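Here we describe the complex-level prediction in full. Unlike the single-chain runs in Section 2.1, the two entities below were treated as one system.
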Amino acid sequence: MDFDYCKILTIDAGLGKVKCEAKLEGFHYGASESSETDWGVDMRSEIFVLDRNVKVQASTDDARSPGLSEAWGARILVADFFEPSLVQRQGMLEMDNVQVYNCSQYMTYKAAITWFQATSLPSKVTNSVISSGRAPGIIIENSAGITLTDNVIADFVQQGVWIKTSSDITFDRNWVHHVQPETTAPAMFAYPIIQPFAVGGVTATEGTSRIRMRDNIVSGSWHHGFHFKPHECDENTNDSSDFDFRGNVAHSISGYGAIALNVNNQCTEVSDFKGYKCTEATIHLGSDSGLENRGRNIISADSHYGIAIMSGGGSNVHVKDSKVYGEHLDNKDCPENSPCDHCIDTLGIVSNMPCPNALPDHKTKWFKLPLFKLCTSHMDGQAKFEDIEFKNFASG
Amino acid sequence: MSYQEVIGAKFTNVAKEALTYFYKPKAEWINWEDCGIEFTCTGLYNGVYKFRQTQHGISGLPNTFDIVANNLESTSVQAFDNRCSLYEPWNAWLCDNSFGVMMFDSLDEDRMDRNVAPVHIRNPDLCNSAGECFDNRLNSFMDNCWDGFYGCQEREQRFPSMIWNDADYYEVYFTGTPPENLHFRVFGDSTGFIVRIVYSNSNSYAVKVNDGNASPQTQWNDVLGTYQPLS
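The structure predicted for the assembly as a whole is:
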């Protein structure tokens, strides 16, 4: 994904023109009308304003020790803890329209904002911009009662938002962009071999419960955009569900748009998701379900493997009421003169690749993707694709 | 991927050659660690996709049809040249709506350890215009796992075979000693056919249906000189 900063020199409100201080380096697709009618998703570039009047900004000029290669990035830490006198301190954070800039520390898991063992008081972050860090953007661990809505979380390393062993988290209408696996720009498919789940856009499946994740956009991350828990078939998820995952969009992902955690339902379903331009599949599900793995109301455009619902442990596959699209030529993968290494084929739906057990739901080694790789020794489980619309696949 | 159904699909601005593509099994899989040294794994050769109530604007393509993998190492779909035609861009055959998959497994204890392949599915009454008759040679599945640097020599004895639904019978020849216990399934619209298994020994076998009960013993037929076939 092409990600550019623009320092605005002038604005012509009448013409709707903005002049940047420096020329943008990447290709950014734009159009006067949304591409949603023809392509199922609005593929126009996302632009967000970084600036807020209230700023939390890391110093960039503090003294460096021989062991510290760069300035210490600030971070906001929210935690409950006991003083030596056994007085309990309760952590909470309320932020609205705040800019958190240049925070999070290089080569650490000290994120720009961290909730760690913050369970006593609710926290809320809204309409804020958390950007331009050298480590993960937000980490929520062993915490509860946190609401993040309408924020921009951009330009971080390894993870945009990482939620672990936490409960009662609301993550709605946020934008998460440009989350590289390393501080230096890696090759398109590659990411470092580190702990499981450490690379991604938004990851919220390790020991979590009561997660509400709706109407978010993730782009420019590696391995996955979203890592989420799927629900039981025909379940209408809501605020009180274990994991309410709806209306989210992932695009321009070097990996999967969304990966469903392996769960143990008799019938497991992923639904209401859109993705485009992912180098693996738009969405993946491969649980060891007794009866069926199901995909419903999914839109996939110009992703390498399209929709990837697979049979785990002999379950059948059923994909229905979904749409898949080919390549939108105006929104170029590899425009002229770009340093591009990701011109890849587009499939609408990849054939069911059954595995004797659940398929993997993550890979620490990038070269072991796709997740259905090596599932060639079983072939039980049948597939049904019902009421699928295929559009704009011009060549074989 | 052996049997898949696509129902009610709508194709808009989709070229015929972009409709599907069937990968063939790799020749590199012919080795001790993957599919054995005789021939490659044959699951990918036996895929059947059924398209029903399809909407498209592709000339010469009906709304209901089957696509069957192009088996390069057997006479399988090739035996039905009156019902199927090869379409190279798909690496598959466009067929009428009369094909399915028969899948059978060994249920024996040694189902992962003892290889009974090659297995041939034959019907000498199903022949093409060149006189080549249905003889589908099947391999067992690829080695299931790795044990350090070595394959763990576990190959599932499961065999999907494409079939024509309306055949009266299929003969199953195991080149290894046939498994004692077999489980047969048929996917597609077949109303049924007889499966004849050539056993290497004389024994008594029971045929059980889905509920686990054995089918009644058939009567002796003096003309055939054996028991009446199952109907």
